[in-house]
């Protein structure tokens, strides 16, 4: 195929996906005379604010199954077209991290919806910083702030309404925590409590960019060329260049032998630890949806009183969703002590009654150690073990230990529910997310990039990985489990894998 033919095929693909999307919105319009429009990029939709029933319907349809497929095709085709016609640019991570930490989205939401002048934004940013560590105004100038915001407006993450006047748009509003400026000033550490976790996720991912030194980690000569001569190197830890060798990029970046979670437990990382817990809630909006777990497993078929154990469940984002919809299921969330100590207090009103009644509870367990019955009087094996975003954190040998502990505790009826992306190759293979004759990559290319970037982040942070279907199959089999079903989220690499004891 010539390049122009490929570009034309991609153009057709965008056109037909757009027609599908437009048809869906037209068909679901409350009145044929005023067809429902797709939400505008220029209009922020804050998670906690009231909107008209029509706008609410338009928002809801974005997650409709057929809309998700059409959106995936549009993103994949546009990404592929851009890659063909233009060399890549830089990345936005530093600017994204700054606007999240500086509460810019909340400041713009609180200000004039038509936009705020950069001088006013600057004043508000400075006023929200603690007086004990006020910014140096010769460093944080309105001019520099304006340049940062313009990068984001250029990348459609904000709007520059008129020169130096900025407003939120649909994208930036996604990371609005709904907190007032007074709340942020009084309790900045509570910024993520009772939110959808997307601001926490952005803050975590943009900061935890340890994988940026992946090249130094993999190529010791580049590390040797760039390392400061003062880099301490305890004897016995030298790599081939005489510099210290690390098992992760994270270790190299922070000069530590601790793993990511051990580091998170350090007293100075309290804020990061709590933000990470909320970031996991946010991840359920970017990796499939939180509701996918409800379709992933036949929860209705479990007998009343069945027990779901959420292994490494954090604040319990996924299992609380199950408990909420299935009042006969009991949930026990297991995690490390610093997480368990804080978890119940991180939930607001919606789930209070389930937590207060004791139907959802937390207990401390290191998942590398044998699983212990829930009480002396109840030695029964749990009905379901949930491992959501756990196996992708660990290399195969550690995963095998985690899985063996659960296999030893399981009865023949126990099921394992694993929530992790299952990667596909970027070429034709047994499974494809697109039709046979599509010009798109079978893994949906740019629309799936997020899962592949998380894969690299996992390699950098924890020497682990996202797995392919066959890698997952082999791993589970080696620990005594056999896959019985895989439920992929629509148009996505995210999946719930169900396994039974062999
Ligand atoms: C990526 S998070 C996933 C959290 C949760 N499953 C979810 O989907 O929101 C990984 C979790 O594993 C927990 N964890 C790490 N090491 C652990 C260990 N040795 N024992 C128990 N939990 C552990 C972390 O504290 C964290 O909550």
From TrEMBL:
GO biological process: methylation
Domain O-methyltransferase C-terminal, first and last residues per copy: 273-481
InterPro entries the UniProt entry points to: COMT-like, COMT_C, SAM-dependent_MTases_sf, WH-like_DNA-bd_sf
Keywords for this protein: Methyltransferase, S-adenosyl-L-methionine, Transferase
Highest taxon in the source lineage: Eukaryota
GO molecular function: O-methyltransferase activity
UniProt protein name: O-methyltransferase C-terminal domain-containing protein
Phylogenetic placement of the source organism: Eukaryota, Fungi, Dikarya, Basidiomycota, Agaricomycotina
């Amino acid at each position: 195929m010539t390049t122009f033919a490929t570009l034309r095929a991609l153009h057709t693909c965008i056109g037909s996906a757009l027609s599908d999307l437009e048809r869906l919105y037209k068909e679901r319009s409350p009145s044929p005379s005023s067809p429902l429009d797709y939400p505008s990029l220029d209009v922020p939709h804050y998670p906690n604010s009231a909107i008209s029933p029509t706008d609410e319907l338009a928002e809801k349809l974005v997650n409709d199954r057929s809309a998700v497929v059409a959106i995936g095709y549009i993103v994949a085709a546009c990404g592929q077209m851009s890659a063909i016609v233009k060399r890549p640019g830089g990345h936005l991570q530093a600017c994204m991290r700054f606007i999240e930490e500086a509460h810019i989205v909340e400041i713009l939401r609180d200000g004039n919806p038509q936009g705020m002048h950069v001088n006013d934004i600057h004043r508000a940013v400075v006023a929200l910083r603690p007086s004990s560590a006020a910014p140096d105004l010769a460093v944080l100038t309105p001019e520099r702030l304006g340049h940062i915001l313009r990068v984001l407006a250029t990348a459609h993450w904000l709007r520059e309404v008129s020169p130096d006047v900025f407003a939120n748009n649909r994208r930036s509003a996604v990371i609005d925590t709904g907190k007032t400026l007074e709340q942020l000033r009084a309790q900045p550490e509570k910024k993520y409590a009772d939110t959808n976790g997307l601001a926490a996720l952005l803050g975590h991912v943009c900061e935890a960019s340890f994988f940026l030194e992946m090249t130094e980690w993999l190529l010791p000569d580049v590390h040797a060329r760039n390392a400061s001569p003062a880099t301490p190197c305890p004897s016995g830890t030298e790599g081939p260049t005489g510099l210290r060798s690390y098992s992760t990029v994270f270790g190299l970046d922070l000069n530590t032998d601790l793993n990511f979670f051990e580091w998170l437990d350090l007293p100075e990382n309290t804020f990061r630890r709590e933000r990470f817990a909320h970031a996991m809630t946010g991840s359920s909006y970017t990796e499939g949806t939180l509701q996918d777990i409800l379709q992933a497993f036949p929860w209705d078929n479990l007998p009343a009183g069945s027990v779901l154990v959420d292994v490494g469940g954090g604040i319990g984002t996924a299992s609380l969703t199950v408990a909420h919809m299935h009042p006969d299921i009991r949930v026990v969330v297991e995690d490390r002590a610093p997480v368990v100590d804080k978890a119940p207090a991180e939930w607001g009103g919606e789930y209070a009654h389930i937590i207060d009644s004791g139907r959802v509870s937390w207990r401390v367990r290191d998942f590398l150690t044998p699983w212990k019955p829930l009480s002396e009087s109840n030695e029964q094996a749990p009905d379901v073990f949930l491992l959501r975003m756990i196996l992708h954190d660990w290399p195969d040998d550690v995963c095998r230990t985690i899985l063996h502990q659960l296999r030893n505790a399981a009865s023949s009826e126990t099921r394992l529910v694993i929530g992790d992306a299952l990667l596909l190759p970027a070429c034709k293979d047994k499974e494809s997310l697109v039709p046979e004759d599509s010009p798109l990559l079978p893994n949906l290319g740019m629309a799936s990039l997020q899962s592949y970037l998380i894969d690299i982040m996992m390699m950098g942070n924890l020497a682990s990985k996202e797995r392919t279907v066959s890698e997952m199959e082999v791993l589970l089999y080696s620990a005594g489990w056999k896959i019985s079903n895989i439920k992929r989220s629509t148009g996505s690499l995210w999946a719930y894998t169900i396994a039974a004891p062999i």
